[in-house]
Amino acid sequence: MDINRRTVIRGAAAAAAFGVAEGAAGNAFASTTTSSGASNTSSADALAFDTTAWSYDATNDVYYQIGKVYVTDPAAADYEHLSIYVPGAYLKATANSDGTTYTATLNPKGIAGAYTGRTAPLVIPVNTPGYAGQKPATSYSYSSVSKYLEAGHIYVWPGLRGRDSSTTTRSDAAPWGVTDLKAAVRFLRYNRGVLPGSTDDIVLFGMSGGGAQDTVAGASGDSALYEPYLRSIGAAMRDAKGRPLSDAVAGVMAWCPITNLQESNLSYEWNMGQFASTGTRASGTWTSAYSTDLAKAWPAYINRLALRDEHGRRLRLTESSSGIHLAGSYYDHLIEVITTSLNNFLADTTFPYTVTTRSGPPGSGSETSVTYETVADYIAYLNTQSTWVTYDATTNTATVSGLEGFARSQKTASKPVGAFDGVSRAQTENNVFAMGLNAPSHFAPLTRDVIKANETVYATYPDWNADYGSAAYDSDFAKKDSVGKDMAWRADAYDPMYYLSPAFAGYRRSQVARHWRIRTGIMQGDTGNTTEINLLLALRNYGVHDVDFATVWAQGHTQAERTGDSTTNFIAWVESITGK
Question: How do 251-255 and 515-521 pair as beta strands?
């Protein structure tokens, strides 16, 4: 099977032609955009930040502005504006005659937390679960930003469109969410002369769909795929002196990023679906056969990526005596990651250990708790269905023997077959790539290839519907959005592997963030272990040296951390990677 679509690089010579190194981003964030054109005078005026319009929270010593439109031709005026919150030490201000606003100038030597007005990082939340929109702030609240400001961060909260914000007159589906995020970053750089902090130290953070979108933004800095979208809304492409601006960022914090969507149907069935036999995976259904075929297609994809581990070992899947390709160096690497996660848990946890599960909303009385008095008790629980963990009490370490036992015990499939690009376009991600309001779309060529290769067999099952056939995918792929781009363009724009892997045409055609922190709960059924593992491997293979990665045992789809809380750990990580 072909690894993907028209964007596959064919041959080393073609790959070498795209030779912009990640390290080229440097601290200058020079744009790699190749198209000509610059913001005109009126655009420049519209993008200028008003230094006479600051509000001030005297109790907490915070200057802030809300509702700053970050593009000159917004397509969604209800979303495309931002708020900015600054520790008071970073500005020198005088009250205006209106008695409510302030005119401020920079105080580069002012100190807050570990930073000065010159070195403070700008942190941007990407709170877009399920790739939903991020509504902009409409009023001031200190409590929501207090921890970041106390640490000395400058907090920037942009509105971002998403799958749930489309209207009858506009589609806000991909790639508009990340486009808006990039436009906000460009706005900050356009105004770097009047805003405190270091725009060389912009850090994104988000969870789930937010972690996915900050991952895409972090991998796709200055990608040409976004240029027509940015220009259509009047994003800042050049500064006031005509120099190219960049939307590359310094750092990405991603919790449980639901990303790499184009291949996720395949990896989900290989990682989890092949071990399930209920629901859409029940024997006798066409979707059970489809699950098997998706799982069988995954090894060809992973092997073409040519990923390598930290020792330079090429990672591949090979055939196994049982199961679907449960052998090879990639399989061994996956088991190593799972084993490391379990051993980290054993090192971090004091027994007795209590697990509390909830089947309903908080306060509903649906919580149940189980306490394991000893490590041996917990290991026995893990081995309830089959023995897949062995434990050495002398070293307090465990060994995981295989994927099947782990998946059946700790990571069961919670989504139907066609987990991301659904057979009837009913999955959340079908709306991520919608063509408008209530118009979900197929988006994954690898999935379409599996359907096309096997639909004559699927048609023999009584639950098959001709509407599930490959023609539906081809029809969706051919449609073009308001900028004139088809699904292949849009899906590539939202795929971090497109920028990070030499298998694709976007490789080394963007400026990749220098610093990454990735955390995921190993128990989540929302995506395969392979999603975050492949992201880690691709980043390291690309040459990104600072990737702080952990798969957290006994946690699910959450802001997973081995110890401590996510906000405190994020703030400490930002301090470790940014200038003081």
Answer: parallel
